[in-house]
Fold this sequence. Notes:
Blueprint: E1 9-10, E2 12-17, E3 23-28, E4 31-35, E5 40-45, H1 50-58, E6 60-65, H2 71-79, E7 93-94, E8 103-104, E9 109-121, E10 124-136, E11 155-159, E12 162-165
Antiparallel strand pairs: 1-11, 2-3, 2-6, 4-5, 5-10, 6-9, 7-8, 9-10, 11-12
Amino acid sequence: MAYRLLYPLRTYLIVSGRMSEEVNVMTADWVTVLSHKPVLVGVAISPKRYTHKLIEKYGEYVIAVPSKDMLRDVWIAGTESGPDKLSFMNISFMESKTVRTPSIREALANIECRVVAKNTYGDHTFFVGEVTGYTFNKEVYDSEEYAPKKLSLFIAHVAKEKFTRFSEEIIIPEI
Ligand SMILES: Cc1cc2nc3c(=O)[nH]c(=O)nc-3n(C[C@H](O)[C@H](O)[C@H](O)COP(=O)(O)O)c2cc1C
């Protein structure tokens, strides 16, 4: 597929549902920022996914940033369907600040989104979420700039079961 030429792409965990009712996690590469003010972040999700059903039902999702130590869970969340997969994953949940969909405690960051628009493009639904809250690991991100500090903890998807991670090297353009 030609879209593979855009890879490596960062990969994320999408949390959907409610702790008290049903909660699910799926892996997604097709996540993008759409607006600065308000902050809008969208994700393309196939209607075949259980997650699609839960986002339609509750109108919320959390984008969790996995670390390299969560790779096994990233793979399970991206290959198994429905909340039963959680019983053989290692993540734990914590309350989010502004939505009732929980966040993932082990994630490097969690971005809380309320669906403000959705549209179908080809075989995926693009959900647009307004960011209403977030939490992040202060040892991993700079607290003022929100820029990542420990780059080698971050992963990106290459193809199928292949992933990569960043080096700590920072490169600056010569101006
Ligand atoms: C690395 C990776 C990235 C993925 N990215 C997406 C994506 O962006 N959108 C999507 O609909 N499915 C994507 N998938 C597939 C879903 O994660 C997969 O079908 C999952 O089992 C759906 O879980 P659910 O049915 O419990 O929601 C990806 C899978 C992997 C392994």
